[in-house]
Amino acid sequence: MSRTTEVTNTGPTNPVAQTNTGPTDLAAQANALFQQAIAGPREQLGERLLRMSLTAWENPALRPQLLRRISSATTSEEGAAQLRDHFTALFVDRVGEVVQAPRLRLNAVVAQVVGLIMLRYVMRMEPIASVSVDALVDTFAPTLQRHLDASQDLSGPGHPPSITQSPGD
Predict the structure, then answer these.
(1) HSE-CB of 146 using CA atoms within 13 angstroms
(2) Quick one: pLDDT band at residue 33, thresholds 50, 70, 90?
(3) Which end of the chain offers a freer environment for a tag, N or C, measured as fewer CB atoms within 10 Å?
(4) In this structure, what DSSP letter does residue 157 have?
(5) Which residue, among 29, 35, 34, 37, has the nearest Cα to 13 in the 3D structure?
């Protein structure tokens, strides 16, 4: 039997009801949250993607599953591949369908999100571990948005050209 938990989202959108019964549901929940995040004005996409990620991690019913995935990714190639595939599918492939950002920039978004998750929920580094989700979004979302904005290319003086595809694409 599934159990429904309400996630309090401190942002401008309504709370999201989530069902927690196992890994399949975790993927379904991620997909539902992701669909909400990519809907809306493009100039706020970085904020919505970051808030979506943090909202999932703030859910006490989901956090143990997410921590197991992070732990597995750091201790086994299979776990790393699963997490890499997850972030590639959501943040690189699907966000790449919405924005015309180079693949390197989309990977930079993943690096920011995963780094923040590691500092807040795994390493519990202060003050990141204890500040509000809103404070984190206010601090980090502009950086994510810069990576998503096609008008702000990473190439230029002092920067290598942006990579739009991975080798073999």
Answers:
(1) 9
(2) confident
(3) N
(4) T
(5) 37
Give CB contacts under 8 A, 24+ apart, made by 31-34.
Answer: 34/90, 34/94
Are the C-beta atoms of residues 145 and 45 closer than 8 Å to each other? yes
Q: How many angstroms separate the CA atoms of 50 and 30, rounded?
A: 13
Cα–Cα dist 58/56, whole Å: 6
49 Cβ neighbours under 8 A, 6+ residues apart: 37, 38, 91, 95, 109, 113, 144
Q: How far is it, in rounded angstroms, from Cα 107 to Cα 105?
A: 5
Cα–Cα distance, 27 to 40 (Å, whole number): 22
Q: Give the up-direction half-sphere exposure of residue 43: CA atoms within 13 A in the CB hemisphere.
A: 1
pLDDT tens sequence across 92-108 = 999 998 898 899 999 99
The secondary structure of residue 3, as a DSSP letter, is: E
Amino acid at 132: S
Q: State pTM to two decimals.
A: 0.72
15: which 2 tokens? 């709370």
Measured distance CA(105)–CA(102) in Å, rounded: 5
